[in-house]
Design brief:
- With 148 residues, the chain is α+β, with helices and mostly antiparallel strands.
- It has 5 helices and 3 strands, in the order αααβββαα.
- The chain has 2 domains: 50 residues, no CATH class; 75 residues, no CATH class.
- A hairpin with a 5-residue loop joins β2 and β3.
- The mean pLDDT is 81.
- The protein binds zinc ion (ZN).
Length: 148
């Protein structure tokens, strides 16, 4: 049976672990040795600490690149950011063209906005591929040079 004091000690150990920003339990034992009278360090496993220490699998570097722009586009969504990035934006999505390594970053308020951004990005690619984008830029250049 666990005494009242013992369960209070467990609660206090966890409280200090969280309060001090998740230091090792060995460090907490050095600060409060009496709390650990009946416990081993291995009795305490913090899920948050375990997740923070986990690492992403390493992807092997690839020297293969596709021959033409927009044949292959890599995309990643990140968030939610613990702090607002700008104007309430908490997410961002990136598109990386495999051929040119050109990168586009869009800030999002909601993760579900990825669909809207993807449609915009896709429209931009279509304009680029059909040459309309180049035509549009040329028209803009002509217009701005006339203004000056
Ligand atoms: Zn922890």
């Amino acid at each position: 049976m666990m005494g009242k004091n013992q369960s209070a000690n467990i609660a206090e150990i966890w409280l200090w672990h969280k309060r001090l920003g998740h230091p090792s339990f060995g460090y907490i034992r050095r600060l409060f040795p009496s709390l650990f009278a009946n416990y081993k360090l291995s009795d305490f496993i913090c899920e948050t600490c375990a997740m923070a220490k986990s690492h992403r699998a390493i992807f092997p570097l690839s020297s293969n690149k596709v021959a033409s722009p927009f044949s292959l586009v890599h995309s990643d969504v990140w968030g939610p950011s613990p702090v607002f990035i700008a104007n309430g934006m908490k997410w961002f999505v990136t598109f990386v063209d495999d051929c040119t390594r050109m990168t586009w970053v869009y800030l999002l308020k909601h993760k579900s906005d990825v669909c809207i951004v993807f449609r915009l990005f896709y429209q931009m690619i279509l304009l680029s591929l059909t040459g309309l984008f180049r035509w549009y830029v040329q028209i803009m250049e002509v217009n701005t040079s006339r203004e000056s």
